[in-house]
Write a structure and sequence with these properties.
With 127 residues, this protein is mostly helical. It has helices at 2-10, 14-23, 31-35, 40-56, 58-61, 65-69, 77-90, 96-101, 108-123.
Length: 127
């Protein structure tokens, strides 16, 4: 299922994927794995997916935080930065602990993204 969703996302079928996620909440557990995909179009699609789901189903998107947060330790700095960015988009304060653990990332761009996400979460009213 993961490969199918990633391939569809790469091919631009985001609306279909959003509908899939809305109808099958078990798919939310795949968001972290999708964000770790090497294809940039898939990762960009995941960001758009999470933005949409955050607006339309924030209760379930919060459950993805641990799966996304584990990517803050990925060897690829792009993946780590994308994970920090998504945690900021989700906007739930439970992500702050994960981001604080990663705040000393050796990559400056990742560090900046983490700090921006923390600041966004601290200023957010979603708890």
């Amino acid at each position: 299922m993961l490969k199918l969703i990633a391939d569809h996302m790469e091919n631009g079928f985001l609306d279909n994927i959003i509908d899939m996620f809305k109808h099958d909440k078990s798919l939310y557990s795949l968001i972290g794995d999708l964000l770790a995909d090497e294809r940039s179009r898939v990762r960009i699609g995941v960001v758009a997916l999470v933005e949409t789901l955050q607006e339309e189903d924030s209760e379930h998107i919060i459950e993805t935080i641990p799966n996304i947060a584990k990517l803050l330790k990925d060897k690829n700095p792009t993946i780590r930065g994308d994970a920090a960015y998504l945690l900021g988009i989700i906007g739930h304060n439970s992500a702050i602990a994960y981001l604080n653990d990663a705040v000393f990332d050796h990559n400056e761009l990742v560090r900046n993204t983490i700090l921006e996400a923390i600041e966004e979460l601290e200023n957010s009213k979603i708890f």
